[in-house]
Specification:
Shape: globular
Number of strands: 8
CATH topology of the largest domain: DNA primase, PRIM domain
Number of helices: 16
Radius of gyration: 25 Å
CATH superfamily of the largest domain: DNA primase, PRIM domain
Order of helices and strands: HHEEHEEEHEEHHHHHHHHEHHHH
Number of domains: 2
Largest sheet: 5 strands, antiparallel
Distance between the termini: 60 Å
Length: 425
């Protein structure tokens, strides 16, 4: 559904309905409680609300799911951010002794924003995205997901669409949540390849031999590069874009290609010639290690991380199921099994799901009368489950449910291991 169908002026009217009947509070609380991992884990978690007119309220914390629900329904945040688990309740941070209020744990998080690729994408810039440049997010998820699982041994990764122009990753394993700032920095640096600001021409420099992690990453990039960069982004077409590519090559190859490109206009043949010349140069140098073609592929396609988001334990990150005020889109979990077909433009807006919710369903009227006479909170919870299932939000909550079920199975497995060990003693 195009964003044009969403009117930001309607947000104040839509948000109360969304928080009252559609936001998946039950699953949300289950996620952030981590199976009751410790007594005050949820209570000591920081939430930050951005209210209407950009009023920013930090250090919110809640004792129960019900308390969180009531406060969100009362304050109607335009944006919700999640922070760390602290040593004390964040809402009481001003009352504790100076220096004792400290961030103890938080998920290891990654933030990938399309604006960081503006120097290498030709289709869009700034906050705009399209189906062509969205391929960069698919590549980023594939590379980082594999590395976090296989190189670091993490299992519980929640990938979330930001609602506008990027993706977030929440690594929720117990070991990831306990990482120090130094360890988080080490992971982020390991995963960072594209380095240097606007003044740096070659942002990727490979050494010989190529590290196994980079080889794995290249195998992902190579699957997408020609269709994405050569065909869709047309990086070897206009003089301006060709010059940017040639600037990444040594003078002898650059000179040869400049002559060749005068007659050959086919972008794919231009790329093939570039690769052939790099290969020829590599074979003529005894030491080897000339990976100019691979460096170009990585510079144009490798994930660009906001390293500071990953390093800090107390850094805030936008919550899943928050609404993006400008696009109206819900920040939804991404099903990696359907990653290649995930379309950010099909992610439901708050206006769409509220409209779907209001469509009459005659078969439910009688059931509602009976249920509403039962315990109010239970009836409310049941009604909310039924409500979101009537909307386009349902399939994304299902992805979240599967993620939570996998974590729950893992907790049970750990508990069984501990009990078996105790029996042995």
């Amino acid at each position: 559904m195009p964003t044009s169908d969403y009117d930001p002026a309607c947000l104040p009217d839509l948000l109360p309905l969304y928080y009252r009947r559609l936001f998946p509070f039950s699953q949300y609380y289950r996620w952030l409680s981590y199976g009751g991992v410790s007594k005050n884990y949820f209570q000591n978690r920081e939430f930050s609300f951005t209210l209407k007119d950009d009023i920013y309220v930090r250090y919110q914390s809640f004792t129960t799911q019900n308390e969180l629900e009531k406060e969100m329904q009362k304050m109607v945040p335009y944006k919700v951010d999640i922070g760390a688990v602290y040593s004390h309740r964040p809402s009481q941070h001003n009352a504790v002794k100076s220096g004792t209020f400290q961030a103890l744990e938080k998920e290891l998080v990654f933030d990938i924003d399309m604006t960081d690729y503006d120097d290498v994408r030709r289709c869009c810039s700034a906050a705009d995205i399209c189906s062509k440049c969205w391929t960069l997010m698919i590549i980023a998820i594939r590379i980082l997901d594999r590395a976090l699982r296989e190189d670091f041994g993490f299992h519980h990764l929640l990938w979330v669409y930001s609602g506008r122009r990027g993706v977030h990753c929440w690594v929720c394993d117990d070991a990831a949540r306990k990482l120090s700032v130094a360890a988080r920095s080490a992971v982020a640096e390991y995963l960072s390849l594209v380095k240097g600001g606007e003044e740096t021409l070659r942002k990727v420099v490979l050494s010989d031999p190529i590290h196994p992690f980079i080889n794995h990453s290249l195998s992902v990039v190579e699957r997408y590069f020609q269709q994405y960069a050569i065909v869709e982004q047309d990086i070897l077409c206009s003089k301006e874009s060709v010059d940017k590519v040639l600037a990444l090559l040594p003078e002898d190859i650059k000179k040869d290609l400049t002559i060749y490109y005068q007659d050959e206009k086919n972008p794919m043949k231009r790329w093939d010639r570039l690769c052939a010349l790099v290969e020829h140069k590599k074979s003529s140098i005894k030491k080897g290690g000339q990976y100019f073609d691979k460096e170009i592929m990585l510079q144009y396609c490798y994930p660009r991380l906001d390293v500071n988001v990953s390093k800090g334990v107390n850094h805030l990150l936008k919550s899943p199921f928050s609404v993006h005020p400008k696009t109206g889109r819900i920040s939804v979990p991404i099903d990696l099994k359907e990653l290649n077909t995930f379309d950010p433009f099909e992610v439901p807006t708050i206006s769409l799901i509220c409209e779907e919710l209001e469509r009459p369903r005659a078969d439910e009227a009688e059931e509602d009368d009976v249920k509403d006479k039962e315990n109010e909170q239970e009836a409310g919870e049941r009604r909310r489950i039924r409500d979101y299932k009537r909307t386009s939000l349902a399939k994304y909550v299902k992805v979240f449910d599967r993620f939570l079920e996998a974590m729950a199975r893992s907790w049970k497995g750990e508990m069984l291991k501990k009990s078996d060990l105790q029996k042995d003693f």
